[in-house]
Amino acid sequence: MVEQELQKDWYVVHTYSGYENRVKLNLEQRRESMGMTDFIFQVIVPENETIKTGPNGELKKVVENDFPGYVLVEMVMTDQSWYVVRNTPGVTGFLGSHGQGSKPNPVTKDEIDRIMHRMGLIERKVDDLNVEVGETVSIVGGAMNGMEGKVTAIDREKQEVKVLVDMFGRETETEVPFNDIDKIY
């Protein structure tokens, strides 16, 4: 085998909308039954848990799919693993494949790390924070979740940034852990 074929990468698989978890289960079962555990590794449905207000004013935890119709698959791209994933019930194809038998392009490490961090599956390391003072960031966790602001200071020792956010019409500086911010590109 060629060395490039042994490269483990993440790929985006397109599914019928609403079938993401079923595809995940089917693919995990096929991986085992077809002896592909050395080529197909993790299967993830990108989801986030949010709190919504119900019709009677009660608060409920709701799981929302971040990318309806898509599943992430970590795999070594070989002819056989490609065939197994493509022919899993509910799968309509790979994102980044140009059709006519061409294999798809993998997702970049930065993109997959951002998704995994947002889901709480990985912790961001100090070296992974690629922002500088003056850049705009999105706050993706904690009390300021969903807000955007400008970085005013970076404390690598505490693993926090100071972010200037607009709250109630006033600029307010808040400290946010590295894990709770994403750079806006």
Describe this structure in words.
The protein is an alpha+beta fold. The chain has two domains: 3-118, NusG, N-terminal domain (Alpha-Beta Plaits), CATH 3.30.70.940; 126-183, SH3 type barrels. Helices cover 17% and strands 37% of the residues. The chain has three helices and eleven strands, in the order E-H-E-E-E-E-H-E-H-E-E-E-E-E. The chain has helices at residues 20-33, 79-86, 109-118; strands at residues 8-15, 40-44, 47-53, 59-65, 70-76, 91-94, 136-139, 148-155, 160-167, 170-177, 181-183. The strands form three sheets. The protein has a five-stranded antiparallel sheet with strand order 10-9-8-7-11, with no helix packed on it. Strand 8 (148-155) and strand 9 (160-167) form a beta hairpin. Pfam families: NusG. InterPro entries: NGN, NGN-like_dom, NGN_dom_sf, NusG-like, Rib_uL2_dom2, Transcrpt_antiterm_NusG, Translation_prot_SH3-like_sf. One of its GO terms (cellular component) is cytosol. Residues 7-119 form the NusG-like N-terminal domain. Belongs to the NusG family.
